[in-house]
Design brief:
Blueprint (H helix, E strand, L loop, with lengths): L1 H18 L8 H23 L14 H36 L10 H5 L1 H25 L1
Length: 142
């Protein structure tokens, strides 16, 4: 919530500076963009944690409890594979960006900081998915 408020104030200040003072801050739009990217990817983790992710449950509602566990395990395992793919390739991209020394145009910040949102959030998301898969089996036994 605080990052959203900060980015809102940042964009508001940029608009005021541009239209009232006829002076544009070169770095504010770039910073707001990177904050938005991080908010989006961390929002993915928050949605996973609270079970608010997008899903189609037409099939799973019609299955028996036992088959539902199998179906959920397969679905979450496929999600885990995809998220781990993003983690592995995201860290490869970070290494590439770090080796090239690419920096952002206005902030002169290493671009790997902005791109780190994907592998970091997906790594956290993979932990949440593994915990959920484990809970599918432990909650049914207890």
């Amino acid at each position: 919530m605080s990052s959203f408020l900060f980015s809102l104030i940042l964009v508001f200040v940029q608009v005021i500076m541009r239209y009232i003072f006829n002076y544009s801050l070169s770095w504010s739009e770039e910073l707001a963009r990177y904050i938005f990217v991080w908010q989006s990817w961390l929002g993915f983790c928050l949605a996973l944690k609270h079970g608010k992710h997008i899903r189609i449950d037409v099939v799973s509602h019609r299955l028996s409890p036992r088959l539902k566990i199998v179906f959920e395990t397969i679905a979450w395992s496929l999600s885990l594979i995809m998220v781990l793919f993003l983690v592995i390739n995201g860290f490869k991209l970070l290494r590439l960006l770090a080796s090239r020394g690419q920096v952002s145009p206005a902030l002169r910040m290493p671009m790997s900081y902005a791109y780190a949102a994907v592998p970091v959030s997906c790594l956290l998301g993979s932990v949440l998915i593994v915990v959920y898969i484990i809970s599918l089996f432990t909650s049914r036994k207890g």
